[in-house]
Design a protein that fits this description.
By secondary structure, this protein is α+β, with helices and mostly antiparallel strands. It has six helices and eight strands, in the order ββααααβββαβαββ. The protein is 24% helix and 30% strand. An eight-stranded mixed beta sheet has the order 1-2-3-4-5-6-8-7, sandwiched between helices. One of its GO terms (molecular function) is acyltransferase activity, transferring groups other than amino-acyl groups. It comes from Leifsonia sp. NPDC080035.
Length: 196
C-alpha cells in the first residue's frame, strides 16, 4: 500500500504547492539536478537525461517523491513552475523481533533538492515544513529523519531551522563521488517535538 495516498493532494502553503511526482517531472527536475552545485550532494548524479529519466521513473522512487511548485502571489508569472523536489520515504522504525510489527511504517526519511535560482527566499524551509506536517498529520508518523554530508551546510542549516535535532555527527563515514570519505550528519524530529 502507498502510505502517501492518505494525504489530500496537493498540499498548499502561502507561496507553494506540493504534489505527487509523475513521470513527466523527470525533465523539469533534471534542470536543477544536473547542475554541479546540486549534483555534488545528491546520491545519484547521472551524466545524461536518459539515464536520469530511467532512474526517476522507477516506481518505488516515484511513489516517494513530491514536486514543489511556485505559487507565490508576488511572482504571478511563474505560477506552477517546479522549483524543487522532496523525498518522503515512509519506513519501519527499528524494533526488536517481538515488537517489530508495531514499528512498521512509523517514520519517514526525508531528502530534498531545490533549483539554485529559487534559493535564498525561504521556499525550501516552507516546503520541507509542509512535508513534515503531512508526515505527522495526516500520516500520523512518530518520527522523521534526514541526513547529509557535513560539508553540505545549506542542507543541515535547513534541518536546524525547521526544528530538527542533530542526532549524529559521524567522522569520514560517507564516500563522496570525488573519492573522499566525508563526515556525515543525521537529524531527527519526533511528532511531539513538532511545532506547526
Amino acid at each position: 500500500m502507498d502510505p502517501l495516498t492518505a494525504i489530500a493532494w496537493p498540499l498548499r502553503t502561502e507561496r507553494l504547492r506540493l504534489r505527487r511526482a509523475v513521470a513527466s517531472d523527470a525533465e523539469p527536475t533534471w534542470t536543477w539536478r544536473r547542475l554541479p552545485e546540486v549534483a555534488e550532494w545528491i546520491t545519484r548524479a547521472p551524466g545524461d537525461v536518459e539515464t536520469y529519466r530511467a532512474q526517476f521513473t522507477d516506481a518505488a522512487r516515484l511513489a516517494s517523491l513530491l514536486i514543489v511548485e511556485l505559487h507565490d502571489p508576488g511572482r504571478p508569472g511563474e505560477a506552477g513552475l517546479p522549483i524543487g523536489d522532496i523525498m518522503v520515504r515512509v519506513e519501519d522504525g527499528w524494533a526488536q523481533d517481538e515488537v517489530a510489527e508495531a514499528a512498521r511504517g512509523t517514520q519517514a526519511e526525508l531528502g530534498w533538492t531545490f533549483h539554485p535560482a529559487s534559493q535564498g527566499r525561504g521556499y525550501a524551509t516552507e516546503a520541507v515544513r509542509a512535508a513534515i506536517g503531512a508526515c505527522f498529520e495526516p500520516l500520523g508518523l512518530r518520527r522523521v529523519h534526514a541526513g547529509c554530508f557535513a560539508a553540505n551546510e545549506p542542507s543541515w542549516r535547513l534541518m536546524e531551522r525547521i526544528g530538527m535535532r542533530r542526532e549524529e555527527f559521524s567522522r569520514a563515514t560517507a564516500l563522496h563521488r570525488s573519492g573522499v570519505w566525508m563526515d556525515g550528519m543525521n537529524y531527527g524530529l519526533l511528532a511531539e517535538e513538532w511545532t506547526p
